[in-house]
Amino acid sequence: MATILFDGVAYGMLLFVLACGLAVTLGLMNFVNLAHGAFAMAGGYVTVILMDRWGVPFLACLPAAFIVAAALGFVLERTLYIHMYGRSHLDQVLFTIGLVFMSVAGVDYIMGSSQQFVNIPTWLEGQINVGGVGVGRYRLMIIVLCGLLTLALQLILAKTRFGSRLRAAVDDQRVARGLGINVGAVFGLTFAFGSGLAALGGALGAQILGLDPIFPLKFLIYFLIVVTVGGTSSITGPFVASILLGIGDVAGKYYVPTPSAFVIYSIMIVMLLWRPQGLLSRATSR
């Protein structure tokens, strides 16, 4: 039971880092970015290329994956996404799902269709014994690192001047510009930061989830479930939803392996029937 709980928390933390960028763009920027998983895939492939071809240490690959995806996200936001902010959600969905299929085809052509795995360092392999429970070193690192990232993200959005400017830009762009806020730069940096977080999750999750060209399509539903169940009015809601869904998914695969694929969807249905606006969202939220 303790092992399942530990693995579920690690999986949930990983889901949150993968999905929190979507929570930011959808909840704070009111933009439906279904191409979010493509940035996660980019982070995974950056890590694989740096480690396997250039021999870069694993821990050095993580910030590299973040920076590359953040730069890519900033460029795409300034050149493509910026023209979609005022469009309907249907237009945004069609536009971003088109980007997903383009990224899948491009990666399949360049990297091939075979599944890739990250060869983690030997000091992250195996388990350590904590109170009689076998705890995987790699999953423990994921919990610690993702926990620190969650705290940092919450502080940035709630306590910093940039977070205040972002909320002001989302509430009323014209008034924000009148106050001297560069709305374009705020949105560009926010989108880049969300893309970088997705890439970091992709780099960390390549060893556990696997990595192939259909990664953005395979895990898109998980990102949407996390954001839908948690709500989009804060970061805390998706975080709680990720932990609950991670534990439920791992426990379902252990106790009921045959119908385990339906466990996470059952949890989603129950949560949405109980809190249709999201776990920690107000009824009046968007």
What sort of overall outline do the alpha carbons produce when their principal axes are compared?
globular
Radius of gyration over C-alpha positions, nearest whole angstrom = 19 Å
Helix content: over 70%
- Percent of residues in β-strands: under 5%
List segments where confidence is low: pLDDT < 50 over at least 5 consecutive residues.
none
Taking the sheet with the most strands, its summary is: 2 strands, antiparallel
N-to-C span: 38 Å
- How many strand units? 2
Note the run of SSEs as H and E.
Answer: HHHHEEHHHHHHHH
| Largest sheet strand order | 1-2
Helix-strand category: mainly alpha
Mean pLDDT: 86
Helix-strand layout with pairing:
Layout: H1 2-28, H2 36-54, H3 58-79, H4 89-111, E1 127-130, E2 133-136, H5 137-159, H6 161-171, H7 173-178, H8 183-209, H9 215-218, H10 220-230, H11 236-255, H12 263-274
Antiparallel strand pairs: 1-2
Helix pairs in contact: 1-5, 1-8, 1-10, 1-11, 2-3, 2-8, 3-8, 5-6, 6-8, 10-11, 11-12
Model description:
With 286 residues, the protein is mainly alpha-helical. 72% of the residues lie in helices and 3% in strands. It has twelve helices and two strands, in the order H-H-H-H-E-E-H-H-H-H-H-H-H-H. Strands 1-2 form a two-stranded antiparallel sheet. The chain is globular. It starts with a helix and ends in a 12-residue tail after the last helix. The model has no long low-confidence stretch (mean pLDDT 86).
